Amino acid sequence: MRQQTLAEALAERAVLLDGGLSNQLEAQGCDLSDELWSARLLADAPGQIEAAHAAYLRAGAEVLITASYQASFAGFARRGVSRAEAARLLRESVALARRAAGDRAWVAASVGPYGAVLADGSEYRGRYGLSVAELTAFHRPRVAALVEAEPDVLALETVPDATEAEALLRAVEGTDLPVWLSYTVAGGRTRAGQDLADAFAVAAGHPQVIAAGVNCCAPQDVQAAVEVAHAVTGLPAVAYPNSGETWDAPSATWHGGSAYAPEPADGWRKAGARLIGGCCRVGPEQIAALGRRLRAGGD
Asked: Taking the domain 6-297, which CATH number applies?
């Protein structure tokens, strides 16, 4: 665990996040076709997850995000995993990242959206038909299990709408852990079609939120979103888009070419981004290039 907190570091400079865990696992030869996605490997091949984290650490990443994005009690139960074992696997996701990180990187425990658990692309639509209270009840046990493993921060990520953001922030209350909140957006709005200023207002003034922004969106959607996030919350912004390719849930395939490049990060940082990295289809080589860009640009 690093001596300086992540929040303290963000007050001084930009911090490099890792990239997509799933694409690195696939590059290592892992099969992620199961509905649990990378979370399945917490039980079946934990060494592969630790190796993927290590690949990003070698690329210069200063924050490693755990393999718990698609992990849930409900999802594990469908595979016949007991509740006690599911809680252990959630904790193990933090332990694996911690072993890879040592004292060289912070560990962010991923708390993915409810839609990720459905494994049908719902996180890119939102509007599940559940209330804030129902979503809070879903997320709170997952958060509690992850907190037990003592990550440095909770990553409330790939959130498609403000309703779930409110639920997630309720779910983390009382944990005393810092969090970042990142929406997935498209065309200047949340995936559920909400105004970004209204969406980021949910995080404004929340005592645990140390950064707010976007992830798993097209790179071209980052700049405007970061500007809004920073202006509304007054906090450092977080920005880790995917490659710009399009995910087709029915066929479980990506389409199109990559639009990810390190150069736009200059503008993101000027707009207030301090946690900068990549998401799906962004690998260690691209994170290494981004790190060189951030170092060259100064703060």
From this structure: 3.20.20.330
